[in-house]
Write a structure and sequence with these properties.
By secondary structure, the protein is an all-alpha fold. Helix content is 63%, strand content 0%. It folds into 2 domains: 55 residues, no CATH class; 36 residues, no CATH class. It is built from 5 helices and no strands.
Length: 110
């Protein structure tokens, strides 16, 4: 991935720009509170790597990953149902609707 902000530098046919909603501020605001610290740590690490390597590709991958997480978490009830379903698939047992989300997420490896 040859991520770049400059349209002139971007190879024809490649699209490495950020998707809508992928600004760090937008991502962090959309995350559940319990994920914000982990986002901050991974974002900080990606920034450090980008500065060292003089390459934005890893930073863009980090932001795109977290944009996806934030998109899933935009509807907390739907996210909880998704986590319960994933936990059930992985464990072979249904998770009760009243189970704390952090427990369900751990079972779902989310």
């Amino acid at each position: 991935m040859a991520a770049t902000y400059s349209v002139d530098d971007q190879p024809a046919g490649e699209n490495d720009s950020l998707q809508p909603g992928a600004s760090p501020r937008a991502i962090r605001a959309a995350l559940l509170a319990e994920d914000r610290e982990r986002f901050d740590e991974e974002y900080s690490s990606a920034l450090t790597e980008a500065r060292t390597a003089l390459d934005l590709a890893g930073l863009f991958r980090t932001l795109e990953h977290w944009r996806g997480v934030a998109t899933m978490q935009a509807d907390p009830e739907r996210f909880a149902r998704t986590a319960r379903r994933a936990a059930e698939v992985l464990t072979g047992r249904p998770s009760p609707a009243d189970e704390p989300l952090e427990v369900t997420r751990a079972k779902a490896q989310m």
